[in-house]
Amino acid sequence: MDFERSRTDETPSNVTGFCQFVTSSNYGKILKDKGFTIDKDKIILKAREYKRSYSDDSYKEILKLII
Question: Distance (Å, rounded) from C-alpha 61 to C-alpha 55?
């Protein structure tokens, strides 16, 4: 699903883009100040796995790291 264009897509990029956003230095600091801890190395690894397979399992693993 490509959320930006509201359509299904063979190669969605929203998830990997979102992972980059939440691990960025600016937003990462805001999350940390709010009590959230995002393991940048783990989320990058999971985003790469997701980008290779676009599987539901990979997506769920990313969600577990963020929530």
Answer: 10
Diameter of the chain by CA atoms? Answer: 36
> H or E stretch including 58?
helix 56-66
- Scanning the structure block, which residue is given the tokens 């980059």? 20
Give the span between the Cα atoms of 35 and 8, in whole angstroms: 34
Measured CA to CA, the distance from residue 20 to residue 43 in angstroms comes to 9
pLDDT class of 50 with cuts at 50, 70, 90: very high
Give the model confidence (pLDDT) of 4-27 as tens digits.
556 566 666 788 888 988 888 888
pTM for this model (two decimals): 0.73
